[in-house]
Amino acid sequence: MRLFVQIPCLNEEQTLPLVLATIPKEIPGVDEIHILVVDDGSSDRTVEVARKLGVEHFVFHTRNMGLARSFRDGVDYAMQHGADIVVNTDGDNQYPQERIADLVQPILRGEADIVIGDRQTKTIEHFSPFKKVMQGFGSSVVNFAAETNLPDAASGFRAYSRESLIRLNVVTQFSYCMETIIQAGNKRLRIESVQISTNPKTRESRLFKNIFQHMGRSGQAIMRSYIMFKPHVVFLTLAFLFFIGAAIPFGRFLIRSWMGVAGDHIQSLIFGSAMLVGALLSVALTVISDMLRTNRTLLEDSLERIKLMQYASERVFDPNAPVLADGARHPSLPVSVDAVIAHHPPADADQATARA
Q1: Is the pTM of this model over 0.85?
Q2: pLDDT tens across 39-91, in order?
Q3: How far is residue 337 from each of residues 171, 310, 342, measured CA to CA in Å?
Q4: Are 6 and 74 a contacting pair, CB within 8 Å?
Q5: Rg (CA), the chain
Q6: Phi then psi for 234, rounded to 5 degrees?
Q7: Cα angle 339-343-346, degrees, rounded to a multiple of 5
Q8: What is the C-alpha separation between 255 and 244, in angstroms, rounded?
Q9: Are the C-beta atoms of residues 187 and 114 closer than 8 Å to each other?
Q10: What whole-number distance in Å separates Cα of residue 308 and Cα of residue 167?
């Protein structure tokens, strides 16, 4: 059983030593523990500090690509190196890394595909009352969209099984947290929570400028993910509302026509016609989105099969192999073209580069 602990970092030279010092060296049921630092365009000594502290696995971004891209590239690297479980934590030492052993136990027992650390946000001292309320509200919205019952949907302290990562696809540019829960819930993956406490705050979040920006971007990610899986609910609801909006003025005009005083209320017909057009367009969008959802399901099925082949045991790098002169690792098994590309990336400065 091979565990990768990935740490997305953006200028974390001060806090990274605290994170690395508290990651368990041994976990019952886990044979190998590897640490992966995802450098998201850091301009400080983050990578140098990580190397001095013994980190051997890195993914480099030549400029800041965001948390979602860092998560996706880190997962790809871990899976290329045979990860059975991937744990995501943060480089700001927000989460208690010593609880990683508890986080992975439901996966090791076969009871869960994804485990999320519940920060118990109502007890966090540096959270304002407004932020605590909005955290609870946001989790409720995500639970509604995913048909889950998670107390802390925004927590980034998570463990993913290999099987769940093959089935999940991150497409958002902001944060993977909400999107992966909604995907996992609608794909009927098993999600569990483990209560944790958080470490003292070390800095302000770099993911967003203020809570309102966070709420806006999170709302967009939730709505986009929800429409992906349940477009009929959204568009049929809109169609119903538009139809009611059309029926009221049409009914009003009809009644006044029977009363012989409809001549001065022709605007009711105009407004009702506009609402009726909106209802018909919503029905048309329902049909179109349902066909797109079917096509997306078929594409995801094909993508899962591609991942199974790409990350098959005979096509992955050995993370314990010696490092070569060019910084790559010598594979002990046959390696696919995809794995070679990961160690010898294209020259485009905007591409993420993965190196051991």
Answers
A1: no
A2: 999 999 999 999 999 999 999 998 888 888 999 999 999 999 999 999 999 98
A3: 24, 9, 9
A4: yes
A5: 25
A6: -65, -55
A7: 100
A8: 16
A9: no
A10: 10
Token output for 305:
């099969």
Residue 191 tokens, joined: 């999600």
- The residue type of 275 is M
**What string of DSSP letters covers 280-336?**
HHHHHHHHHHHHHHHHHHHHHHHHHHHHHHHT-GGGS--TTSPB-TTS-B--SS---
Close Cβ partners of 150 (under 8 Å, ≥ 6 residues apart) = 116, 118, 139, 142, 143, 181, 191, 193
| The length of the chain, given as a count of residues | 356
For 81, the token pair is 């190196």
Q: Which two tokens stand for residue 303?
A: 């993508």
Tens digit of each residue's pLDDT (9 = 90 or more) over 276-333: 999 999 999 999 998 998 998 899 999 999 999 989 887 888 887 765 544 555 444 4
Nearest one of 46, 45, 19 to 202, comparing CA atoms: 19
Residue 36 structure tokens: 């992966």
Helices 267-310 & 231-258 angle (0-180, nearest 10): 170
Residue 204 and residue 189: Cα distance in Å, rounded? 33
Pair of tokens at residue 346 = 């294209």
The residue with tokens 């041994």 is: 26
192 burial level (CB within 10 Å; 0-12, 13-18, 19+)? middle
Measured CA to CA in angstroms, residue 198 lies from 5, 14, 97, 143 at distances of 18, 18, 10, 22
CA pair distance 108, 171, nearest whole angstrom: 28
Report the 10 Å Cβ neighbour count for 314: 8
Structure tokens at 182: 């909604």
Q: Residue 264 — φ and ψ, nearest 5°?
A: -90, 10
- pLDDT, one tens digit per residue, over 233-292 is 999 999 999 999 999 888 877 777 777 665 566 777 888 899 999 999 999 999 999 899
